[in-house]
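stuck on this:

***
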Amino acid sequence: MQSDSVRTASRADTAAVIRTVTLGFSSDPIARWLWPETDVYLSAMPIFIEHFTGSAFEHETALVTDNYRAAALWLRPDASANDDAIDALLDATVSRNQADDTQSFFGQMAAFHPHEQPCWYLPMIATDPAHQGCGIGSVLIERALQRCDAESLPAYLEASSPRSVPLYERHGFAVIGEIQAGSSPVMYPMLREAAW
């Protein structure tokens, strides 16, 4: 692994972190299903990231490498996405032909999210493609899971690509189902039980 140190991102890091995540998701199956056209993806994805994970900066649960090669945007149990803003963005940017599939897809995401107990949530983790495969993502995951374990809380995420499932499994996550609607790729909700 490269000698990247990990730190908590501040609000001042928001723009740089969003650029890293946008770059890291540029070939993500779900993101590119939503926005297959490059110009639409590049305009919509940064806004989506802000609405989906923005509270990670406010609550100091966003992790980043010092040089912005990778970032993980965690949401603590009492945090949430800005669902109304996300819905408005999707309505404005996703093809009308897949509007119903998109609504169904996000509805399934909401249904799989654990509701019966407090849970840490990792909505987005990304590495600059030029630095993928160096172990940076694992370091970001391990750092956050230490906090989950200290609080005896489970962690939840959705793997948006089958290639990422083994990475999360190595960190104790298990697939608990599949999310798929119409023409969408499959997303894999994954849960890591609390370490007691």
